Every structure is written in C-alpha cells, then in structure tokens.
Amino acid sequence: MLAIIGGSGLTQLASLDLIRREVVRTPYGEPSGALTFGRLCSQPVVFLARHGYGHTIPPHRVNYQANLWALQQAQVDAIISVASVGGIRADLCPGTLIVPDQIIDYTWGRKSTFHENSDEPVVHIDFTEPYDEAIRQRILKAGLKAGETIIDGAVYAATQGPRLETAAEINRLERDGADVVGMTGMPEAALARELGIPYAAINVVANFAAGRASSASGICFDSIDAVLRDAMGRVRGVLDHICES
Ligand code: HPA
Predict the structure, then answer these.
(1) Where is phosphate annotated to bind (predicted)?
(2) What spacing in Å lies between the alpha carbon of 85 and ligand 1's midpoint?
(3) Is any ligand 1 atom within 6 A of the Cβ of residue 84?
(4) Distance CA 167, CA 183 (A)
(5) For every one of its 245 residues, what pLDDT tens digit does the chain have, with 9 covering 90 and above?
C-alpha cells in the first residue's frame, strides 16, 4: 500500500475513495492525525496530513517519529511526501513541481532516529541517496501521464523554521548547493530510511526564497495561497496517475 504525506495546501485528497479513518497510537506519541485509508485509481492508499487536518502543527513540532511509525504499522510499502518549498535556483519559480534527489539538513533539536535508547546499539543508515530512485521514477512517470512538467532532481535544504529565512541565509544555502528550501523534509526522509520504507518527495515551489523575488522587497503571502491552491490541484492530478506508473 502506498502512503501519501500531505503538506501545506494538501490536507486532503479529493480523489481518494474514503474507506476508513484510524487513530494510531505509537510508542513515540501521537501522529499528526488519524490515518485516512482509501483508494486512489483503485489502489489502496493511506493519507496523512503532516501539519494536522486543521493545519495547526508547525514544522518543528511535527511528530515525525510517530507519523513514520504509524505508517509502518499500516504496512505501507512506499511513501510519497508532498511538501511546499521556496525556490532558490532562478528557474524554480512559484508553481514549479520538482522531484528532488538530494538533501542538506540544517534542522536541529528534532528527534531524528528511532535508535536512541541507551540499551540499544547505535544505528548508522546509508543515506548517500536520501530518496528512493524507483519511487522518484514512479512520480516522474505519473507526471508524464498527467501532462505535467516536473523537474527531475534538485537539492532540498531542510531548515528549522517556522520563520522563513533571511536573504543572507538563502545566499549561504545557494553556496552550499541547495536549489530549494523547505522545513519538513528532515528528519522525515531519514526516519523512513531507518524503517526501510522507500520514500520520495514532490516539492511544490510556493514562493521565491527570501531575497530572490525580482520585484517585491519581501515574501508575498497572498500570492503563496493562490500558487499553492493551483499547484496542489496539479499534484492531485499527478497522484491520480500514480498507480498506473
Ligand atoms: N522557506 C522555507 N520553507 C518554505 C518556503 C521558504 O521560502 N516556502 C515554502 N516552504
């Protein structure tokens, strides 16, 4: 079964034929919300809204451990994360859809491993390639079928939030090699890898990153809502083809 973790702008999937909702308890506390089981193009799918169904959980307070554990309990065999980002690279303007292929982690203080009990051996996962290539290709193929242009490959910088970055911070991320910036990609991807669940992401560029818009001096929040509404509609269109790809 495929899992979809929806981010800002994607708190539900309209095309999901709802079967049931399930509140899952985990040793790590409460997930962001109930798991929503349903069918998407006749395949079983489970959906979870990362920030809660009322969008009340900020990026640094998301219980990533509980979310990933709950999805493992549901026996998912792949996870697609949908997350909005700021565009750093000049061609990644608002509305662009991207399947990233690398991550740089700038987050701190988040619980980023399932293996931290003192009576347990330390676990070092191989994270050279943080995203699962087969799932990445599946998303890209679904994009082709949906007639959507999706950029194949980008370096995702995960920042702590919840504030947006300064212009100098964005310049630093660019020097580091980052193409887009978001706040939820880590430790989600690493925890999925620890559990052995193939994981990949669709990033939606909501805004030019701080200091990168050519005209305005700051970030225009009104346009972010409109961009996300339109782009998440297109993401839903891609996901509608995911089971054929
Ligand atoms: N920075 C960090 N996270 C984001 C942004 C941004 O500009 N836009 C959407 N998520």
Answers:
(1) 8, 50-51, 184
(2) 4
(3) yes
(4) 16
(5) 999 999 888 877 777 788 899 999 999 999 999 999 999 888 899 999 999 988 899 999 999 999 999 999 999 999 999 999 999 999 999 999 999 999 999 999 999 999 988 888 888 999 999 999 999 999 999 999 999 999 999 999 999 999 999 999 999 999 999 999 999 999 999 999 999 999 999 999 999 999 998 765 677 787 888 999 999 999 999 999 998 77
Number of structural domains the chain divides into: 1
Known binding residues for phosphate: 8, 50-51, 184
CATH assignment of the domain containing 56: 3.40.50.1580
The pair phi, psi for residue 224, each rounded to 5°, is -60, -45
DSSP E strands, 50-169: 78-87, 97-99, 102-105, 150-152, 155-158
Q: Domain range holding 179?
A: 2-244
pTM value? 0.95
Distance separating alpha carbons of residues 9 and 228, to the nearest angstrom:
6
Does the beta carbon of 165 lie inside 6 Å of ligand 1? yes
